[in-house]
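hey so i finally got around to running the thing on that chain from the lab meeting. sorry it took forever, my laptop kept dying and i had to restart like 3 times. anyway pasting the input first so we r on the same page abt which one it is
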Amino acid sequence: MKLRIGIVGCGTVGQGFLECLDRKAADLQARHGFEAKITAVADPVRGNLIAPQGLDIRKTLKVLAQGGKMQTVDPRAAKYDGIPTVDIIEAAGADLIVELTPTDIKTGEPASSHIRRALMTGKHVVTTNKGPVALHGRELSELARKRKLHFRFEGTVMSGTPVFSLAERGLAGSSIKEIRGILNGTTNFILSRMETAGLDFPEALAEAQKLGYAEADPSADEGRDALAKIVILANVLLEAGLKPASVSASGIGGITRAMIASALADGFRYKLIAYARRDGARITAGVGPRKIPLTDPLAGIMEARNALTFDTDLLGLVTIEGPGAGRLETGQAVLQDVLAIHHELK
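ok and heres what got predicted. didnt touch it at all, straight out
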């Protein structure tokens, strides 16, 4: 079965998704009966085009890797520079839109508008964008349900590590009482380096920036990234109705090397912990640095890794660990969701 796909935002994650499709094409066809046909790309930097005949994925990747524009990929394709992205979504000739624009956790735009237009015009949606899901997840999911469409967002939390599909299938039948986790790889890397290399916070931050884990402006890592993710988890898995603005969040800027050494001597380790728990009908959530015992599964998560522990009524504690970011890793998250929709449509 061939699925027509339009991509909105073809930066690192979009190209990671295309690379997954290219590398796994034969396997996807043999194991899943799946073939992707990329009919449109909309990107403010790389250009817009609509190609009903489908793009050559390998050629597209080569052009983008060389800094080229989408228009040079296929001279037969219609060029749509200067046209609003929402109009390209409507005209994309796609069954499914993959929305991969940068996250804005304050407004959720422009991704929220992109997703609404896709759903309103009868297209399934996959996104890795935390903003729309954290701010408008319930509304968008309900819109998809009413229109008998799929709206999936595995890559919004822990990249390609299967969090929502684990809860949806692997934990089916169990009730989740609490979710606790390390959801930001940058802060976890910094804390790890402060401990193992004896660095002060500014030194560890500089190393994280040099390696590409942290942005030049690291403020997003000061609790806000993990905040968006725990709000999504609470709303989807615990059926909460939380908004990011109503959840307290703090970062690790106040943690010193001396504090880390003292905690370790007492059998504890500092981690930036995001949590959401059910207390009767009430759901509480938050993000902040915590001293956790070395016996806690989350205490052993070092460097830029992420992990989540689910406290369930039937299985007790279940912990999943994996990458929380990365080009191919997040591309794999998109592929997971696309394949899930493909199987549902079959």
